[in-house]
C-alpha cells in the first residue's frame, strides 16, 4: 500500500528503478520488467500515452555540479520580483505597529528557526498562548509566514535580506 490508487491516478507517467520482484514492478508500472534492471541509473520510463515502458539511463550528478549549474543560471539574469508579493512593508497591520519591537523579535526567532508556530514563539519569547497567536496572525497578515496548515509549522516566506530591510525601518 505504498503507492495508492489516488497517487497512480494523479501521476500518469511513471519511472521504475531496479526492484527485487515482479510484484514490485507491477505496483509501479503495472507490468513486470523493473526487476530485471541492473541499477546504477538504469530505469524504465512509462509515458502517459505508451503501453510499454522505455528503458533509459539516468546520469549521476554530484552536489558540486548541481550547485555550479544553479550558480551559473542565477548569474545570467537578475530576478524580477512581483511588487505586491515582495513588498512586505505595505502589508503591515495596525496591530503590528503597536507591538513593533515584539514583531521584529518574533521575526528574528522564526528566521533563525526556519519555521513559525505559536509554541515556538511561546518558548523563545516567553509569551502566553494568546499573545504568541496574535503575533503569528500579524506575521501572516504581513505576508512573512504561510497560512495555517493544521498541525504543521508555518513556512517562512521572506529572506534574511528582506528581514534586514524590515528591521531597519519602522513598521508604521
TrEMBL record:
Which InterPro entries does the record cross-reference, listed alphabetically? FtsK/SpoIIIE/SftA, Ftsk_gamma, P-loop_NTPase, WH-like_DNA-bd_sf, WH_DNA-bd_sf
Matches recorded under SUPFAM superfamilies? Winged helix' DNA-binding domain
The UniProt record lists the FtsK gamma domain at: 96-161
Q: What is this protein called?
A: FtsK gamma domain-containing protein
Species source reads marine sediment metagenome
